[in-house]
Hints:
Helices cover 36% and strands 15% of the residues. The chain is α/β, with parallel strands linked by helices.
Amino acid sequence: MGMPSLDITFKNVASTAARRLQRGIVAVILLDSAAQGEHVLLDASDIPTTLSAVNQAYLTSAFVGYVNTPSKIYAYVLPTDAENLSAALSYFETQKINYVAGPPSCSTEQAAEIKNWIIAQRASKRYPKAVLPDTAADNEGIINFTTDEIKAGTQEYTTAEYCGRIAGLIAGTPATISCTYAVLPEVTDVKRLTDTEMDTAVDHGELIIFHDGEKVKVGRGVNSLTTTTDTKQDPWKKIKIVETIDMIRDDLRLLTQDNYFGKYSNIYDHKCLLITAISTYFAQLEAEGILRAGESSVEINMEKQRQYLKNKGVDVTNMTDQEIKVADTGTKVFLAGKIGIPDTMEDVELDIEF
């Protein structure tokens, strides 16, 4: 009687995926002489009025979002003379967050501290990301925002002072679209770049905003990853793709831990139970439009299963595939899956004859 329950659990979590991807959670670090410690903000009305005007405006801009607003902001306020950001980062480590932004005065050293924390978290199978000023990290978890001379009416902002706004914009981007060409209606001008300079910036893993002659909008929605490998190819450079991958990895890790590990003996029938549950999860994501229809699959990883048995001294030479599948693998479950994540339309070629 276990299979339907596990199957339904995985499907129910998948059915909330679009909502979770539409309204991400932003974590913001501030330096201030007041309101120190952690704050959970559900909307701009929750912003502490004792904060400096600069910090209040920074949080307010993060709540603007894009199509949607962030679902919440975790703000951690440190003393203005804090030696490092470790207290804030330790707090964020205990929360479910999507994007981190440093203080509006974020220094090169503070950006590097956040960058190193993000990379360490992702290596530990937690998947936050950060929007940082002028930080070339070559990592999909770091969004390197590089535009300066940002003007909103008579107010001019530095790159660092606009990272909170960008983090909120990305967090408010629905799962089915990207932040590419998202308009920032409050921005009246930015440092002007030529087409070649903008292309070069994007190729270098920089997220920029630019003036198109009428309005200011986000360039191509890329993170700082520039070096591709066999396991991380060009799609990993896109903010939209990585956000979906991170959600799926996080969902499946928690779902298997909470609903499977320690609750079933590791026999073939129970491996099939898990495969069915993950397949149901993928199918629901396809129905939500988060994955491409008909491209998802999951099965026993025969290569790893066979290698495990060989390492245990089992002669697999004459074993059939079915015998490999049902063989005892101790506590190990070796699975292999495939998914297709749709990108958005960003490059259009139109040939017109007349």
